[in-house]
Amino acid sequence: MTAKISRSAAAASAALAGALLAAVAALPAHAQSAPDAAFRATTLNLSAFGETKVVPDLATISLGVTTDAPTAAQALTGNAAQMNKVIAALKKAGIEDRDVQTSGLNVNPQYVYEQNQPPKLNGYQASNQVTIRVRDLSKLGQTVDATVSAGATNVSGISFGLQNPDAAEDAARLDAVKALQAKAELYARATGYKIVRLVSLNEGGGYQPMPQPMPMYAMAKREMSDSSPIAAGELKVRIDVTATYEVAK
Question: What does pTM read for this prediction?
Fold first, then answer.
């Protein structure tokens, strides 16, 4: 009985193997040799970039209020009152609620350190930091000045950007592809080949606003007859691309 089962299993295996061989043989020649053809293909792996320059239409600023008081509660209360004045100045300057975001709120004890003496508590310091977006750059300097006049004690930086970077990115993409195609054709000619097809194309990079230096306002207001001069300059929008081309003689 056992011998009969073994012979049946062997016969079934042989039949299955035969069927598989027949199926492979029935495939078109190009399908059977696809792995070998891919291995034998000559390819160029290249990279290029496209870049466009555009005038920014958005500025982001971080500013804050710092207050000192004998107790933490007093420091917070004084800080809140001063920050409310700053927020009111922002609204008066045309900054919308959606463009004002709290980025930090801290209360810290302050100590006096003397030689050979333990630290002595000297009060508390409260700080409130907000990040604002200015969409009308013609009012940027006036907005900064208004916040300082209203009680902002520090302005930590500014960065310029684009409200809608799509058009600039697309222009950079076109330049990147043109540069990539030109490079592929150059390499093909130099090596005695011609481009057969584009196998793959990948994108990297993109629009990234870069921070710009600006004056720091440290614990003091200042009287200004003119608004602070702030130059937006230009932004560079860069797109990087990589591609694989198949080439042939």
Answer: 0.65
